[in-house]
Amino acid sequence: MRHYWQVAAGNVASGPNYSHLFLKHGLAFVGGDDQVALAEEVRAGDVLILNDGARNIVAAGLVVERGGRHGGSDDKAWVRDVEGSDLRAYLFVDWHAAESPLEVKGLTRSSIGRTNKAEHHTIAEALLKNPPLPIEPEPGEPTLLSYADIIADLQTQSKYVDPIATLAALENIQAVYREQAQEAQEWNEDETRDRLVKPLLTAFGWLKPEIKDTVKGQGLGRLLCCFPSMRSEKSLDVKVIECRRFSSGVDLSASQSNQIGKIFTGTRVLVVTNGVAMKLYSRPEVGAFKTDAGAYVNLARPAERCPSNPKLPGALTALRYLLKKV
Fold this sequence. Notes:
The protein is of the alpha+beta class.
């Protein structure tokens, strides 16, 4: 008997969203022990309904076997770091996308779960008649970096790096990520800033008077700025970091890019972080920042390149930018 499941690829409202990776690679993946247990109940021939929140269906897919199995867990390294989330269980899926999101009632925001609603089944069966999406090869095995390797590199880049404080800050981030993630889901931007981001900045050489809170605009997290020698916010030397909630994603919207670009007319790179995941966004001139990231790092699981997008530079590129050098 065929069962129908709804699955969400992150939180479309404010958290990380990775539905493009589901559709691109013919997969669905989830994390967390309860979600992994549910994924283990899915069988080949079942139907997955991909939603982007509690209102829209964007695709339906048939769970299929590849290489003699329909899924697994803990053996795909790149899904252990998707936008900072550890999504260790996966299913193989032939996806069929809607031309535009289909608004329906009765969806939930849970990552995976059964749906017995006839309306959902009808929509899914209609979508399965669409041509299947092409499947692109998955990313290869990421090259992980040790904290010792990272600190050694950063010390060659700046005389201000405190190796002991840097190790302590990184180990604290890793401990939160692995052991306190559920509690940290309730943190606001200020807690992310004070518990995770500021300790790293001070370890990188920034003095407390040089790290300042600044304008918090509509739709922005807590903005932090590092002003070398107390220079103007128009200076190219200013580091601008948007600190978001631990549970938030680190993608940059066009409106956020424009807002921050108007506040800081000089800086060429913007950092967006939830305390663990971090992305860098650049702009060649004044105006808005690019909304395509220029580098990515998961501070609890740093790699040479972004695991889900190996074209994107990783830990060293991202962290070098944050260093105090003058």
